[in-house]
Design brief:
The chain is of the alpha/beta class and 482 residues long. It folds into three domains: 4-43 and 63-80 and 215-282 and 410-472, FAD/NAD(P)-binding domain, CATH 3.50.50; 44-62 and 87-103 and 209-214 and 286-409, Guanine Nucleotide Dissociation Inhibitor, domain 2, CATH 3.30.519; 107-208, no CATH class. The chain contains 17 helices and 16 strands. The protein has a seven-stranded mixed beta sheet with strand order 7-6-12-13-14-11-15, with helices on both faces. The longest helix is centred in the last third of the chain and has 14 residues, at 459-472. The chain is globular, with a radius of gyration of 21 Å.
């Protein structure tokens, strides 16, 4: 096959970001994708019925909209259009109440009653410094900060367990539950050190950039990235499964948008035993159990705020959410799981036929779980939306094994490329300022198993490509503006 400067294995957002970074620096690039469609975790398809467009994995994208790298790309010219729902996030409580995160910080604070001033005091510094902090968050933890004072101000509360910070900051249940649900995106028990960091980052993002989603589905993000890459001269080949290094076309650099476990299997004996062992021992995050619904009508939420929200967190109180995430961390299935829900079709008519709706929902489960969580998820939805089951036309259920079949990076249902506890944020998958580099010259990791970890933001790919450009091509491209 024709030789090129760089090959990228995998066409998820990180793989495409790596390819674009290399192509912008003048390298010839080829992307190899196992599946027949590009996008990895940012794909969409008709999973239930014709005309119902569902997101296969990621659905709501505050980090994509706020990504320092994506902001440098003309993705809107390639059809990417963002939708901001009236309410970014609603967290229903019993008896028809709901705590809501709106993009306007003052409006959100006012809605939280006595805890409004505390919510404002906690998040306002990070909302104000979002442009500075997003660049600090979205790179290896071991780096020379460009904004040390802003980062230090963030770091103090971020090191707290989320449950402890919520109890310390807030007096009433709505604010406590709202923060707990946001922090539960970490897949960590809420008693874990630094679990509060996820609540602070995603909470601040909600006020600074919103929790938007792309019109037409998550596939629109991948298609826009691919279109821009092709405009730069890059090539993409689908249906190209790579099982070992011998199958790769000749190239000076190969970047793997695969988990570290897949990379260890593919590179095999080419890697030093010690390094390969460290990759294989990198710990998984819990898995997810996902349901996509075709609905005959909008979900009949009791709380009015839920009917205007793009994202919902179903879990009740801080204590209930903490118990759910603790059970999963201990290898058990929660009887009342914390459920994440997205209802994009309320605000995007391209997602479903007229007068019908889609719904996207998942809960956390132990890694590799084979248990059907449909009944538990629907009990939680019915708890806050009585009569929901009467709206269901069709379900598409995907447990951990099914998710891995659709995307080999979702090993055991782990959508984050490995646990994101404090140690594995430092050592992702190894300790160092450039953990994208491997001991085998010319081979790099650029997936969510590298910093900054999971999420659709492209920053793992961008940083890995910068490392390869410096190592192999003698090119030092400027850091992203902050």
């Amino acid at each position: 096959m024709k030789e090129c400067d760089a090959v990228v294995v995998g066409s998820g957002p990180n793989g495409l970001a790596a390819a674009i970074t290399l192509a912008r620096a003048g390298c010839s690039v080829r992307v190899l994708e196992t599946n027949s469609t590009i996008g990895g975790g940012a794909r969409s398809g008709e999973l239930t019925r014709p005309g119902f467009v569902h997101d296969l994995c990621s659905a709501i994208h505050p980090l994509a909209f706020g990504s320092p790298f994506f902001r440098t790309l003309p993705l809107e010219r390639h059809g990417l259009e963002w939708i901001q729902p009236p309410i970014a996030l609603a967290h229903p409580l019993d008896h028809g109440a709901a705590a809501c995160l709106r993009q306007d910080l003052e409006e959100s604070s006012d809605s939280l009653g006595k805890d409004g001033p505390a919510w404002d005091r906690l998040l306002r510094p990070f909302v104000r410094d979002w442009e500075k902090l997003s660049g600090e968050f979205l790179q290896p933890m071991l780096h020379l900060p460009r904004h040390p004072f802003a980062l230090a101000r963030f770091g103090l509360p971020a090191l707290f367990p989320a449950s402890a910070l919520a109890r310390f900051q807030f007096r009433e249940e709505p604010a406590r539950a709202l923060f707990a649900g946001i922090a539960a995106h970490s897949f960590l028990p809420l008693e874990a050190i630094a679990s509060a960091a996820f609540g602070l980052v995603l909470g601040a993002a909600g006020h600074a950039v919103g929790w938007p989603f792309p019109r037409g589905g998550a596939q629109a993000i991948s298609d826009a990235l691919a279109a821009h890459l092709r405009q730069l001269g890059g090539e993409i080949e689908t249906n190209r499964r790579i099982e070992n290094i011998a199958q790769l076309p000749p190239a000076r650099a190969v970047l793997f948008d695969t988990t570290c476990w897949q990379f260890a299997r593919i590179a095999g004996p080419q890697l030093p035993v010690r390094y390969r062992s460290r990759l294989e021992k990198f710990r998984h995050a819990p898995g997810v159990f996902k349901i996509d619904y075709a609905l005959s009508a909008p979900v009949p939420w009791e709380a009015a705020g839920c009917r205007a929200a793009g994202t919902l967190h179903l879990g009740g109180t801080l204590e209930e959410i903490a118990a759910s995430e603790r059970a999963v961390a201990e290898g058990r299935h929660a009887k009342q799981p914390f459920v994440l829900v997205a209802q994009q079709s309320l605000f995007d008519a391209t997602r479903a036929p007229e007068n019908q709706q889609t719904l996207w929902a998942y809960c956390h489960v132990p890694h590799g779980s084979e248990q059907d969580m449909t009944e538990a998820i629907e009990r939680q939805i019915e708890r806050f939306a009585p009569g929901f089951r009467d709206c269901v036309l069709t379900r598409h259920v995907a447990g951990a094994a099914a998710l891995e079949r659709s995307n080999a990076n979702l090993v055991g249902g782990d959508i984050n490329g490995g646990a994101a506890d404090l140690w594995q944020l430092f050592a992702r998958p190894v300790v160092g300022p450039a953990p994208y580099r491997t001991p085998r010259r010319g081979l790099y990791l650029c997936s969510s198993s590298t910093p900054p970890g999971g999420g659709v933001h492209g920053m793992c790919g961008y940083h890995a490509a910068r490392t390869a450009l410096r190592d192999l091509f003698g090119k030092r491209i400027p850091a992203l503006p902050a």
